[in-house]
Specification:
The chain is of the alpha/beta class. It folds into 2 domains: 143 residues, Aspartate Aminotransferase, domain 1 (Alpha-Beta Complex), CATH 3.90.1150.10; 233 residues, Aspartate Aminotransferase, domain 2 (3-Layer(aba) Sandwich), CATH 3.40.640.10. Helix content is 41%, strand content 13%. The protein is built from 14 helices and 11 strands. A 7-stranded mixed sheet has the order 2-8-7-6-5-3-4, with helices on both faces. A two-stranded parallel sheet has the order 1-10. Strands 9-11 form a two-stranded antiparallel sheet. α4 packs parallel to α11. The protein binds pyridoxal-5'-phosphate (PLP). The site of pyridoxal-5'-phosphate has 13 residues, from α5.
């Protein structure tokens, strides 16, 4: 039978993404970029890194070139580059420059949003709410700074229960300031919290609530009806900060560059709270500008993720391992056996997989690698099944 796996095997091509894209898979995409050498693995080496939700294809060669050029400015403070970066982000989103907050990765946006809220005298008695399975940076900071952090329960299917989050946060807002941290698609579960539900809440929320909407994975969303929360900022809402990163689809996790979008008065106070005014260096600023310009790399990255993700869901389906339907560059899936056994065994077989998350022993978060990596991963998972390890 001519399965897609056989087709790929039979192609006799080196199984880089470019080769797979060129091998006639039903992508609905074509063009020179499909064989772009940029889409072969970079960095990392062995074992295969399926644990940090990075972009295994690296970043655009045009971004590397831009960073090389920027190195000549290593002796200069990055003022000019800051302006260019802010301008590029603002025009990419068709928003004013005054709404942009530069971040040393989006983690800094998360940190400074929390810090700025907590430092504000009226907000110092802040309580933070988030789904119990969420990106842990905010939880860790709250623990460090002794800010109350409330985890609301997930739904039975492990998706974010927005109603539970909403009623808990609204109840607290009657007594004092609240920050709601929401990631969509959520990490580690990958499920999409639709913009319609987020928007309904933001528009009608108690005035004591500030939303921190983390859109680290929004580029991977295929649902055309899902919109960025940046639209809410554009519509004039002043109760939210939207965090974005270049670490995922743009492949720049090591460069540490991201941004936030918020109403001008929030953006001003956050920019003022940044390290000495210049928190992103010339390389990061140049990288961000070039990354936004190279739409071909962006599309190729998404196409690669789509193919590789399908390979992962195919093997999970074959083996009857349940997973949360999601829209990101990772999948949260059942492994049927304790994670404490699975993770070291995968490492022995050449794959770094996610750490234990949400205390769920029988689940793992799998980052999507390149298609050839996912093919090897699928073979390994089948071997695990034959050995009774999943
Ligand atoms: C939901 C979420 N937000 C933010 C980040 C941090 O990204 P950055 O590298 O931009 O700091 C990550 C990283 O994995 C993430 O998963």
């Amino acid at each position: 039978m001519l399965t897609r796996r056989n087709m790929i095997r039979g192609s006799g091509l080196a199984l880089g993404t470019g080769a797979i894209l060129a091998s006639g898979l039903p992508l609905g995409l074509s063009g020179a970029w499909a064989q772009d050498p940029a889409m072969t693995p970079r960095g990392g080496g062995a074992p295969v890194r399926l644990h940090y939700n990075e972009n295994a294809a690296g970043c655009s060669p045009k971004v590397i070139e831009a960073m090389r050029d920027a190195m000549d400015e290593s002796n200069l403070y990055p003022v000019k580059r800051e302006e260019a970066y802010t301008n590029a982000v603002a025009s990419y989103h068709s928003i004013a420059e005054g709404n942009v907050i530069r971040g040393n990765g989006s983690s800094e946006i998360l940190l400074v949003t929390l810090l700025a809220a907590h430092q504000n005298a009226e907000w110092s008695k802040l309580t933070v709410f988030a789904p119990s399975m969420s990106f842990e940076v905010i939880a860790d900071l709250c623990q460090k700074w002794k800010i109350p952090y409330v985890r609301t329960p997930m739904a039975k299917d492990l998706r974010v229960d927005l109603d539970a989050l909403r009623s808990a946060a609204e109840a607290q807002a009657a007594h004092g300031p609240v920050m709601v941290y929401l990631t969509s698609p959520n990490n580690p579960t990958g499920d999409l919290i639709h913009s319609k539900s987020i928007g309904d809440w933001v528009k009608s929320a108690h005035e004591n609530i500030l939303f921190l909407i983390d859109e680290a994975y929004i580029d991977f969303v295929t649902d055309p009806t899902h919109k960025s929360a940046i639209d809410l900022v554009k519509a004039g809402y002043e109760n939210l900060v939207v965090a974005r990163t270049f670490s995922k689809v743009y492949g720049l996790a090591g460069v540490r560059v991201g941004y936030g979008i918020a109403a001008t008065k929030i953006a001003e106070s956050m920019n003022a709270a940044m390290i000495a005014g210049s928190n992103v260096n010339v390389l990061g600023l140049a990288a961000g500008v070039a990354a936004l310009e190279d739409r071909d790399f962006y599309k190729a990255s998404l196409a690669s993720n789509r193919i590789a993700r399908k390979m992962a869901t195919d093997v999970l389906d074959d083996l009857g391992l349940d997973y949360i339907p999601g829209e990101a560059n990772f999948i949260f899936h059942q492994i049927g056996r304790p994670h404490s056994e699975y993770q070291p065994r995968m490492l022995e077989h050449g794959f770094k997989v996610g750490r234990l998350m949400g205390g769920l022993q029988n689940w793992n978060r799998l980052s999507i690698g390149l298609p050839n990596e996912m093919e090897r991963f699928a073979d390994t998972l089948r071997l695990f099944r034959n050995n009774g390890w999943v």
